[in-house]
Amino acid sequence: QVQLQQWGAGLLKPSETLSLTCSVYGGSFSGYYWSWIRQSPGKGLEWIGEINQSGFTNYNPSLKSRVTISVDTSKNQFSLRLSSVTAADAAVYYCAKRNRGTGGTYYFGYWGQGTLVTVSS
Amino acid sequence: DIQMTQSPSSLSASVGDRVTITCRASQSISSFLDWYQQKPGKAPKVLIYGAFSLQSGVPSRFSGSGSGTDFTLTISSLQPEDAATYYCQQGNSLPYTFGQGTKVEIK
Asked: Does the pLDDT at position A42 exceed 90?
């Protein structure tokens, strides 16, 4: 059974860099895209970006200038860095695996437990 | 970005009722539409993918339909454990986007 376990700092000051890591247990790490998604009361669920085992990334244009997603295949881990955080970046951050469905479809089939990130001076 | 609009924003229904939630995309997304259920303090859980495919382990009272821009999630007989917020999400083009959610309460 696939499990995603995430960790990272939950309290940041404005202008600091958010850093989260997600470890994947069970199943194959290769051949899939691994995403970061955040959820805030104001903006709902927002997809941040994704990476595959080769390091190929896609980012949400709204965050692209501040986001870096990286992968460590030796540890079956992927990480998120979001620079220059403000109060608008306060949210619950999730890591997720994009599963293949039928007929060329994909969906977020496994999620981490979520990390609450607060931004306060 | 493709905008996803759900309606209603919330609803209250009785156990056994048939419940329908709609999701409209701002442009055609073929059948690249997924539905998620989220309970407080938990991560979303996929119910339906590809507009109508039921995820393994999900009760058959959940069903999805639609293509193009208009989609529907139906709960054929509402159960107490279905109290949750439901989200649609398009996977047709980047960036992936979600609806704003529909909160389902049990009367």
From this structure: no
